[in-house]
Amino acid sequence: MQAGADIVAHGLWHWNREQSATELTPRAKQILDDAIKANTGWQPTMQVLYGLRICFDPAYLADPRLPVSFPQVPLNGTAPRRGNGSAPSSRQTLLSDKALKSHDPQAQWQEAQAALAPPITRDRNATRYLAAHGGRVLFGTDTPSAPTYANQPGLNGLA
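RE: above sequence
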């Protein structure tokens, strides 16, 4: 904010000093208040987090919204192999060694949801605060967000 940017892309999901907090901290509120005061546009980039989580969802390829933006052929039974849906660094960051070694899609899905819940909540709360206080919240698709099969072009705008 001190640099005077017109637009900030990426939300407040990493709080370096308050990684366990999910409610807005005084520091986070100050950043958001400064953005509101400066009329800085804010693109929360929330879908990127959901896209990382989707990589672990065993039911993802059955989502009825996928044919809107994803070719039909891959949806007809040629799903990516489990465990290859996200970059290795993301998998290793999100999942415990036990979940990685288990190859249990349901266990990995549950663990990924738990790991991503705090940053999703932080970003959601920051975006809600901006909207409630007259901030400029900008639309963006987060496409492509990572080297994954999630976050398909066209689908993120619907999410």
